[in-house]
Amino acid sequence: MGAADQNTITRQKPRLMLAEPMLTMRGIVRNFGDVQALRGVDVTVYPGEVLGIVGESGSGKSTLLRMMNLEDTPEAGSYHLSLPDHQDSNLFSLDRFQRRMLRARHIGIVYQNPHIGLLMGHTSSGNVAERLLVAGNRNFAELRERARLSLAASEFPVERMDATPRELSGGMQQRVQLAKAIALEPAVLLLDEPTTGLDVSVQALVLDTLKRLQRDRAITMVLVSHDLGVIRTMADRVVVMRRGEVVEQGLADQIFQDPQHPYTQQLVHAKL
Ligand SMILES: Nc1ncnc2c1ncn2[C@@H]1O[C@H](COP(=O)(O)OP(=O)(O)O)[C@@H](O)[C@H]1O
Ligand SMILES: [Mg+2]
What we know:
The protein is built from eleven helices and nine strands. It has 272 residues and is an alpha/beta fold. The site of adenosine-5'-diphosphate has 11 residues, from strand 2 and helix 2.
């Protein structure tokens, strides 16, 4: 039995399809000048699952994830999260301040480039604590302890929590981003190529941490990658994007063993 099969068993997938969606996006359209980055994309994410979004460079993955993080607004489309205080509203109608609060409390994100997600000259613990501050926590000792716990959960060596990200390796920087992202137990964790650019051995360690977090806390994750191998090790379900459109989606096993769309077949076979 391979590692992927063992995962299937410990993750208890059947519950996925029974639940109400955690995240629902419908009809997302985004143009940059002549470039149609997103051409009417629908995505649904269920509680506790890892949704993998795969597609070649330029297919619109990062643009879609930025929408999920409310960093950008589409020309058309709606976005709902299953949160007690935002049940019925289209989140794109929120103003900047409301978006910032919602993001701080309910959404975590890890970017490929740590410079986007972190203050590189601040301590690692400070980067995580900053997230807790936004949510209103002001007690220094408590902030520091909660930052430490979050770093430990991300398998960051906590004796280095006062080092700045600038002083750390790429893998450790991603763990700081992760600690910051999960500090407030977000409803959804967004990951945009979190291991792209890391050495393969380091990449495997960071993916192991993500898997462990997912298993222990059942965090709902949306994982974007151009790397089919990363998607295969992590995702329960997969959305395949091409030129701003979803061309295929399904359970990971189905996508990898029996891809239907010619583009997916090409991706899967190129990888094998
Ligand atoms: N801010 C932007 N300004 C202009 N074009 C953009 C911008 N963001 C993305 N694009 C374009 O939109 C398309 C999708 O980009 P992106 O979502 O980054 O793709 P992916 O993450 O799948 O590689 C690309 O053609 C890209 O050049
Ligand atoms: Mg991208």
